[in-house]
Each structure stands twice: as structure tokens, then as C-alpha cells.
Design brief:
86% of the residues lie in helices and 0% in strands. By secondary structure, the chain is mostly helical. The longest helix has 52 residues.
Length: 128
């Protein structure tokens, strides 16, 4: 057993590292998905307010949706980028390389989403 102790410690260390990395990658996916889901739900709520009330600023709850979404999207963007930015593509590891690319694509979608919410917020403010 002593003969394999060093290898076992290395394997455990790599296993812990792999487990932490897997958890972090899932957390970035979850934060991005949550921000996108919040944005979708807020879009539906704001659209309903416009249709039912005639103005998005007629309701305080709808006028706070744009800044909430901007913050949520920005936080998810930063969380996603901080994890994936340092990751390099690895030859012969297609799934990992695909995850890096897909995360980059999601971040690229988040920028116009946040800007869109900024415009909606500005319109709500002007209308109010």
C-alpha cells in the first residue's frame, strides 16, 4: 500500500480538481440559464403590462424589471467569463473544447440582451 500511496494522493488530488472544475462549469451554465430565463419571464411580464395597462411605467414592478435584468445578465456574464476565460482548448478533447466555444457564444448573446434591457429601461423612464 505504501508503494501506491503517492499515486493515490495524486489521483485524489486530480479527482478533487476535476470535481471542482465540473461543479464550476455547471454553476456557470446555471447562472447563464437563470439570467436568460429571468429575461424571458420579464419580457413576458413587461409585454403583458404594456398590453393591459397601456404603458410599462404604469406599474412600479414593471419599471424595475429592466435594471434587474441588466444586473442579472451582467453578473452571469462576469461569472461565465471568469471561469471560461482562462480555459484553453485541448487537442483531442472535443467535449471540453465545445463547452469553451458554446460558453463564448452565450456570452456574446448576453451583451445585446443587457443593452436591450438598457434601452427598455430608458424607454420606461422617458415614458414615466
Amino acid at each position: 500500500l505504501l508503494k501506491y500511496e503517492e499515486r493515490s494522493e495524486k489521483a485524489a488530488k486530480h479527482s478533487d480538481t476535476a470535481a471542482r472544475e465540473l461543479y464550476k462549469s455547471k454553476a456557470t451554465q446555471a447562472s447563464s440559464a437563470a439570467a436568460i430565463a429571468l429575461s424571458l419571464a420579464s419580457s413576458l411580464a413587461l409585454s403583458s403590462a404594456v398590453l393591459l395597462l397601456g404603458s410599462p411605467s404604469a406599474s412600479t414592478s414593471t419599471s424595475i424589471l429592466p435594471p434587474i435584468n441588466m444586473v442579472a445578465i451582467a453578473a452571469a456574464f462576469i461569472h461565465n467569463r471568469s471561469f471560461w476565460k482562462a480555459k484553453a482548448k485541448v487537442p483531442f478533447v472535443g467535449g471540453f473544447n465545445e463547452a469553451i466555444q458554446k460558453s463564448k457564444e452565450i456570452r456574446q448573446l448576453m451583451v445585446p440582451m443587457a443593452l436591450g434591457w438598457g434601452i427598455v429601461g430608458l424607454l420606461c423612464w422617458i415614458d414615466g
